[in-house]
Amino acid sequence: MKKYWKYIKPYLPSFILGPIMMIVEVVGEVMMPKLMANIINEGVATKNYGIIISYGGLMIVVALLMLLGGVGGAYFAAKACVGFSSDLRKDAFDKIQEMSFTSLDKFSTGSLVTRLTNDTTQVQNLINMMLRMMLRAPGMLIGALIMAIVMNPRLAMVLLVIIPLLIIIMIIVIRIAFPRFKAMQSKLDKLNSNIQEVLTSIRVIKSFVREDYEAVKFEDSNRNLQKSALKAMKVIILMFPVMSLLMNATTLSVVWFGGQQIIAGEMEIGDLTAFITYITQILMSLMMVAFMFLQTSRAFASLNRIREVLDEKIDITDETAKEKERLVKEGNIEFKNVTFRYYKNSKEAVLDNVSLKIDAKSTVGIIGSTGSGKTTLVSMIPRLYDADEGSVLVDGVDVKDYSLYNLREGVGMVLQKNVLFSGSIEENLLWGNEEASLDELKKAAEDACANSFIENMKDGYSSELDQGGSNVSGGQKQRLCIARALLKKPKILILDDSTSAVDTATEKKIRESFYTTLKDTTKIIIAQRISSIIEADMIVVLDDGKIVGQGSHDELIESCEAYKEIYYSQMDKKNEEVGA
Are 385 and 101 in contact (CB under 8 A)? Predict the structure, then answer.
């Protein structure tokens, strides 16, 4: 409970007032049958209209108080549960924002979406139900039970048979339901992941005419969720008819034995009417308790999944940073014996004892085969990953000694997968510098060779981008991402294969602009094309997580077999294209 106190505390008055207001309604419900019995016994039976009117008036007052209690209880319960779930969702979202790439790799995108939406909603529904029922159901059970025993102890003996049976059924149902609801949420994860993947890759799916294949995949996920949901719901489907049968059997028993007592003159008709109502209240309260436990089993499965996010250890923090106020000023970079594994228990290292020095203001190209560790290497500079062994230094200081904010403010990255957000082009560019003027936006766009196509768009810099920038071409998307990074004016700029969709002439213009616009910036360019890095001050060749060559283009042609192989294979391909 201590874990969730922070979510309860801001709404504590609502958490208290909700159940109290419900108690008002419960007291009214327990009073009503007795008042009705008095009307029948003392008013109707003797034709005393004064008693009927007085008790009737009292019933109206009680009904109005019940209305006030019910509405007030529902309002405060809603206020408490919505506030609780909103704060819980915010903390889970903030935790996801803090996670390193290593932590994020543990969860699928669809799973995280489910935890922030469906799972949080399940918890919200539980709190709402608990605040409205946790005192109402036991209160009605106890109140109606006391009234029934006081009214007719002998007839109340029927409850000694039915209540244990209902409790046994509740225990069995809960033990069966909990694992089934947990499995259902897991299936929902997979369905959401499938939907997310299809929606973000719809253009690829259409271009490869794979709609039928994806439809079958979705049908499998959907069918698995359906089966899992039906398996969980069968518990509810079976529980309520069984409990209704027991309720009806109890009511029949009461009518039978109570009728005999009326015939024998041992009980009045009004008392039997009230007794039947109390029996119904007792059994209904037991059903409410059963439903609460059932909903609790489902909500706790969801709560555990949310806790997995909240309890995820943040492995990259700046809590122990020694120079939190320090800024990246020069842009010198050094890797000292860096080793990294995606899976800490794995024997195979993505980077194996890598050492490298990069001078400030220089341009460095990194090339290598797919999976050689290029992206992982540069991701360690802004601490998107941390080295398992060795250290990464910026301006002679270990990156772990910077505050994360100051370190990442000094590093601009254009990732391999270019990401734009729904909104205007201007709003996307302002990610680089939210204080930038329109002239600064245009200058960055010119340097990235993006200004011409932006101004040709109907609304220019106010043109709206769809989610992910799906309404612009791959090359345009890359140039917008480069412009966004340039606006940041970083001391270190990392371009991770970020001009692959740009023609060579445009790419050359972008590189040339770097030498003037970013002359005081350290530039690291990861590329597949040697032409993209051939003029770099230093070229680093990675192969299987190790540096197998470094130097200028001419030096590597003489000394590095891996570089020569890449270079001549690309030249041969180029010559073939020219000859064709």
Answer: yes
3-state helix, strand, coil in the chain (%, to 5): 65, 10, 25
Encode 353-413 in three state secondary structure.
EEEEEECCCCEEEEEECCCCCHHHHHHCCCCCCCCCEEEEEECCEEHHHCCHHHHHHCEEE
Dump the DSSP string for 249-276: HHHHHHHHHHHHHHHTTSS-HHHHHHHH
Rounded distance between C-alpha atoms, residue 115 and residue 308, angstroms: 10
Strand partners of residue 365? 525, 539
> What's the pLDDT tens digit per position in 440-485?
999 999 988 888 889 888 888 899 988 777 788 888 888 898 899 8
Cβ–Cβ < 8 Å for 74, 132? yes
Question: Over the range 354-376, which residues count as b (16 or more CB within 10 Å of their CB) and which as e?
Answer: bebebebebbbbbbbeeebbbbb
Cα-flanking dihedrals φ and ψ of residue 393, to 5°?
A: -115, 140
According to DSSP, residue 468 is labeled G
Place of tokens 């069968």: 234
Kindly calculate the radius of gyration of the chain based on its CA atoms and give it in whole angstroms: 35
Q: What is the DSSP string of 137-206?
A: HHHHHHHHHHHHHHH-TTGGGGHHHHHHHHHHHHHHHHHHHHHHHHHHHHHHHHHHHHHHHHHHTHHHHH
Crossing angle of helices 269-310 and 12-38, rounded to 10°: 170
What is the C-alpha separation between 384 and 89, in angstroms, rounded? Answer: 24
CB 342 within 8 A of CB 350: yes
Residues 6+ apart with CB under 8 A from 489: 433, 521
Are 524 and 358 in contact by the 8 Å Cβ rule? The answer is yes
Q: How crowded is residue 396: how many other Cβ atoms within 10 Å of its Cβ? A: 9
497 touches 330 (CB < 8 A): no
Question: Over pLDDT 90: what percentage of the chain?
Answer: 20
How far, CA to CA in Å, does 444 sit from each of 79, 159, 281, 410, 486? Answer: 48, 80, 72, 17, 6
Beta bridge partners of 366: 526, 540
| pTM of the full structure | 0.69
What the block records as the tokens of 503 is: 């023609």
Other CB atoms within 10 Å distance of the CB of residue 385: 23
Percentage of the chain with pLDDT > 70? 97
CB contact set of 384 (below 8 Å; sequence gap of 6+): 100, 101, 316
508 and 459 Cβ atoms separated by less than 8 Å: no
Residue 579 has pLDDT above 70, yes or no: no
